[in-house]
Write a structure and sequence with these properties.
alpha/beta, seven-stranded parallel β-sheet, 12% strand
Length: 326
């Protein structure tokens, strides 16, 4: 995959690429909890390997964890057995509050090292493109400050927001480079907190910093934002991301005409409303509907709108892959 762009990968595959955002359901295949996978690189890799063997997606990603970089900075994190970890405190209220974090190297953190090791093991054992995630700088700023406080500060104290996002971008890029060195073929920057921003605010407080993270990276770089980001599509493209991973509220066929053909749209079957709650037949119908609507666009990869929950029925993933491959 050296130097291949995501659009080239999609065009040269000879078929529509199918890559649901798997991860958590892999724990079922190793009879383990999500918490066990969070702290055990060998188990984490084995869970992902079992997913690849069972479903044969075109790309496989690490398990998604939005708390990883915040935890590496020392923020307290809660680890449920079968749910995503969550950050419990948000200690930054001023620029001075950043000082204790500036002396920390996120790569010294045991969990960061564990995820990097998982990627190294994936590179050794898995024969399809391998993806990793890094939290975006605006979202990490929200974990440091609190999402509500961050939102208010974009109006009341923009200099503070820029300072925290700028610091966060350095943390995110350092981890992204480590994943690249470990063998990641694709890295997706996760910016769920940015969904409420206006286009202008997105560019100023988020997009410009995401661009700094993406610049010069060897892996294919994608951008994922949860929720309805229809109003941000042009600004997301301006970051330089080769792929936009969009959530289920976005009508892909509506936004596809305004996206450059060199940028790949990735998505966007509802991970809960369809993949968890529907029958396999319902999953097949939704996949077929999406494929039909996106048939005119070669710059499209069939995926889910976000990471699949642990409780996703495995037979629904089978149905997703079956219909996607038809």
């Amino acid at each position: 995959m050296a130097d291949m762009r995501l659009a080239d990968l999609a065009a040269k595959a000879g078929h529509r690429l199918v890559t649901p955002l798997l991860g958590y359901p892999g724990a079922k295949l190793t009879n383990s909890s999500l918490k066990q996978n969070e702290f055990n690189p060998v188990l984490h890799c084995e869970s992902l390997t079992r997913l690849v063997e069972r479903f044969r997606p075109d790309v496989v990603f690490l398990m998604m964890d939005l708390s990883l970089e915040a935890g590496a900075l020392g923020l307290p994190v809660r680890f449920p057995l079968f749910e995503s970890p969550t950050v419990e405190e948000h200690p930054v209220a001023s620029v001075d509050d950043l000082e204790p974090f500036r002396v920390l190297d996120p790569l010294d953190d045991v969990r960061i090292r564990g995820f990097v090791r998982t990627m190294e093991l994936m590179a050794e054992r898995i024969d399809i493109p391998k993806g990793g995630y890094v939290v975006g700088p605006f979202t990490l700023a929200g974990l440091l400050m609190g999402a509500s406080e961050l939102a208010m500060a974009t109006v009341t104290d923009p200099e503070l927001v820029h300072a925290v996002v700028r610091f966060s971008a350095g943390v995110c890029r350092r981890y992204a480079l480590a994943l690249a060195d470990a063998g990641a073929d694709i890295i997706a920057v996760l910016e769920p907190t940015a969904t409420f921003l206006s286009p202008r605010s997105f560019t100023s407080f988020c997009g410009d910093y995401v661009k700094e993270i993406l610049d010069g990276m060897k892996p294919i770089m994608a951008l994922h934002i949860c929720g309805n980001t229809t109003h941000l599509i042009r600004e997301m493209c301006a970051t330089g991301a080769e792929g936009l991973s969009l959530d289920s509220p976005v009508n892909l066929a509506t936004v596809a005409p305004i996206v450059d053909p060199g940028v790949v749209l990735v998505g966007n079957i509802d991970p809960v409303g369809v993949m968890v709650q529907q029958t396999p037949e319902g999953v097949e119908q939704e996949v077929r509907r999406l494929l039909d609507s996106m048939a005119p666009y070669p710059n499209f990869i069939l995926s889910t709108g976000c990471d699949l929950p642990y409780e996703t029925p495995l037979e629904n993933i089978d149905a997703f892959m079956k219909e996607g491959r038809r």
